[in-house]
Design a protein that fits this description.
Blueprint lengths: L6 E5 L5 H8 L3 E5 L4 H17 L5 E7 L11 H11 L2 E5 L4 H4 L8 E5 L1 H4 L8 E5 L6 H4 L1
């Protein structure tokens, strides 16, 4: 995968193990913990500055939980998609809380991750999840 040791950006809160795993595999993390419009503005400014300051210091991926847990906030996903196209990063969306029944993120996400544990069993005796690669994504072949 390109930019293996590049930066990963996290909007809002993710499951606590996710940032640990990202760091374990060599990714620098940048957090925008509230996932607000103002933080999206800050992120866009960061992208602009990095492009001119150090082209090798790029963002590889943005992870976002839609809607965020526990605050149920949603950032402007179409704007994130435009930024992903402009700056060449993957957009990874966790749709566990919103679920595919309520929120369709396939149009904007390159990768969709979902925890299915509670859907399969409420007794904590099963672990399950899914990863979906968007076949319409510009980076679909690269992600295979």
């Amino acid at each position: 995968m390109r930019l293996r040791h590049a930066k990963t950006v996290v909007f809002g809160f993710l499951y606590e193990l996710t940032p640990k795993l990202l760091r374990m595999y060599g990714s620098d993390l940048e957090f925008f913990g509230n996932g607000t419009r103002e933080e999206l503005d800050e992120f866009e400014e960061m992208l602009k500055l990095q492009r001119y300051r150090d082209p090798s210091d790029q963002v590889q991926a943005v992870w976002y939980e839609c809607a965020s847990n526990p605050l149920l906030k949603t950032v402007d996903l179409e704007r994130l998609r435009r930024l992903a196209d402009q700056y060449g990063f993957f957009l990874v969306v966790d749709d566990t809380i919103g679920s595919v029944a309520n929120i369709d993120v396939l149009e904007v996400a390159d990768i969709i991750v979902t925890s299915l544990t509670k859907s399969f069993s409420g007794y904590a005796n099963v672990m399950a999840g899914s990863v979906i690669l968007n076949p319409a994504s510009k980076c679909y072949v690269e992600l295979l």
